[in-house]
Amino acid sequence: MKVPKTSANAEPTAADRGKIARPVAGAIAPHNPHNPDEPHDSRARSLALAASLALIAFSLRTPITSVGPILLEAVRATNLSRTGASVLTTLPSLCFGLFGPLAPLLARRLGSERALLALLLLLTLGTALRVFPVWEALYLGQIVACFAIGLMNVLLPGVVKRDFPHHVPLMTGVYSAAMCVGAAAAAAGTVPAAHAIEYLLGGASGNSWAWALALWALPVALATLVWGVRLPKKSTHAGRHAQVVRGLWRDPLAWKVTLFMGLQSSLAYIVFGWLPTVLRTRGMSAVDAGFMLSLSVVTQAASSLLLPFLLARLRDQRAVNVGALLSTGVGLMGCFFAPASTMWIWALLLGASQGAAFTLALTVIGLRSYDSHVAAQLSSMAQGIGYLIASCGPFIAGSLLHATGSLYSLAALCAGICVVSAWFGYAAGRREHVNAHLESTH
C-alpha cells in the first residue's frame, strides 16, 4: 500500500487504518483522551508506561555527560593522548550513528519491550565497566554503553508514536526532559562524587574519578528493574507480521529531518564533551565548570517540557526550529567569550535553546510520520545518519582546540553549524508527511 505525502492534519481512511495501524505484540493500548468511556485501568497503564519511559530516558545521557567534567583527571590517570581524548568525546555520537540502524531489526526479533530490557542490561554493564582506572576499560565501557543508548534512541520515538499517538509532542517533551535531568545530574554530580569517594578512602586512592563514573550504573539498574517488572508475561514473536517501510531513503523530506537531527546533535556533543574543558581553560574550577554544564542541561529539561505547549499554538515548526538554532549560537558565543561573572546567563540561554532544538528534532520525526512503523524507520534513519554526522563535531572541535589553542576557531565552527542546521530545521518544519509506503513480510 502506498501512502502519498500529505498534510500533517490528514487522517487515513478506515481501510487504511486497518492496514497501517496494526499493533505490535505486547503493546500497551494507547490512552485516548477523547474517549470518556475508556477504562480507568487503561489510563493507569498509560501513566505507568510514561513514568517507565521517563526513568529509562534519565539514564540515556548520564554515561556521556559524566565524562566531560572529569576528563582532565581521566586523561592524566590513564596517560591518554590528546587524540585519544578527542576520540573519547566522539564515541557517543559515533556509536549512535553506527549502531542505531540495528534497532528496528532487534525490535522485530524481540519486540520493542524486550529489546529495551536487553539494552538496559547492556547499558548497566557498560557504565559499570568504567570502574577500572585504565583507558581500555574507559573506552570499552563507553562503547558498550553507547551501543545500548544508540539503539534505545531509535526505539523510543516509535514507542511514543505507537502508544501515545495523540500526545507525540507532549510525550517527546517528557522523555527529553527526563534525559536532560539525568544529563544535568551527571554533569554536576560526578566531580563531587569523586571528591566524596576520595574523602571516604582517606585520600589514599587516585582512582576516585573511575568510581564516580561507574556510580551512574545505579540509576540504569533501577530503570532495568522497573521496566522488567512491567513486561508482559508472554509475547507473540514480533517478527511474524513485520511491517517494512519502503521509499524513505529516497524522500527529500526524510533527509531534511535527518540533517536537522545530525547538525543540532553535533552542537550538543560539542557542548557535552568540550564546554567544561573550555571553561576550565578560561580559569574556572572543575566544580564550577561542571556546574555550568549542569545548569545548561537542567534548563534544557525545562524548555523540553514547556515546548509542547508552544507547538500546540503553531501551524508548523519552521519558525521555532530556526529560532532555537540561532539562539543556540548566541549562547555558545557567550560561553566562549563573555566575562566569567555573566556565564550563568549564557549557560541558561544555551540550555533553553539546545533543549528546544533537541526536542524539536525528535518531535518532527513523529509529526512527519503517518504511523508508528514509519516513525520507527524514520527515527532509525535520522538518528543513524544524523549521529554519524554529529560524531564529527566533537572530534573536529577537539582537533581545532589542540591545533590552534584558540577559541575563535571553535566559535567559527559552531556558528557555521548553527546556520546550516537552522536552514534544515526550517525545511523539516513544514507541515507534511514523508513519502513512504508499507509492505508486510511473513
TrEMBL record:
GO molecular function, one term: transmembrane transporter activity
Pfam families: MFS_1 (PF07690)
Annotated SUPFAM superfamilies: MFS general substrate transporter
Coiled coil: none
Keyword Nuclease: no
Keywords: Membrane, Transmembrane, Transmembrane helix
Transmembrane parts of this sequence: 47-64, 84-103, 115-132, 138-160, 172-197, 209-232, 253-272, 292-312, 319-339, 345-367, 379-401, 407-428
Protein name: CP family cyanate transporter-like MFS transporter
Organism annotation: Paraburkholderia caledonica
Taxon lineage: Bacteria, Pseudomonadati, Pseudomonadota, Betaproteobacteria, Burkholderiales
